[in-house]
Specification:
Elements lengths: L1 H7 L1 H22 L4 H15 L5 H9 L3 H12 L3 H9 L4 H9 L4 H11 L7 H13 L2 H18 L15
Helix pairs in contact: 1-2, 3-5, 4-5, 4-8, 5-6, 7-8, 7-10
Amino acid sequence: MKERLERERPAMVDQIQSSVTDVTGTLQSKFGPVSRSHFVAKRVVTTQHQQGNLNEDSISLYARSHRFDEVTIGLSLLCTLPGDVIERALVDKNREMLLVLGKALDFSWATTMALLFLGAKDHRITAKDLKDLENEFGRLNVETSRSVLEFYQTRKHAARPDSGLPRQVPLHMH
């Protein structure tokens, strides 16, 4: 794919590489490069998930402790979505995807709020914005949110037919 793009649209390659570099730089400046602590977090959270102990309580604790890697990995496992999709949902200025994920997992407002604060700039949200987010979260329907999540899962799996990963049942509810 990359070779074909380089042949057919050489100008786009630089543009795409530049965008990727910008995004990577932004994420690394905010969270640091993928580090040993990330791999440790991945091992811990994956083990927790395999033992059936990854749930709303653990995600909430990680979020309130500002454990970004653990939250990203944990939500990725619970939602069967790639970590980069979860990372984007956490840091995106548009908080809708994060509200949908929280509702689809049937998380409480308190847990969802902890996730919102984790991804917010300087971990701050104005009282008015928080109230608006809570109202929006309250209007969301669990089933509709799960349908949105399934759509994202299908899109991500379709984009990677060669991933070699078995198709997982959406949403592991514990």
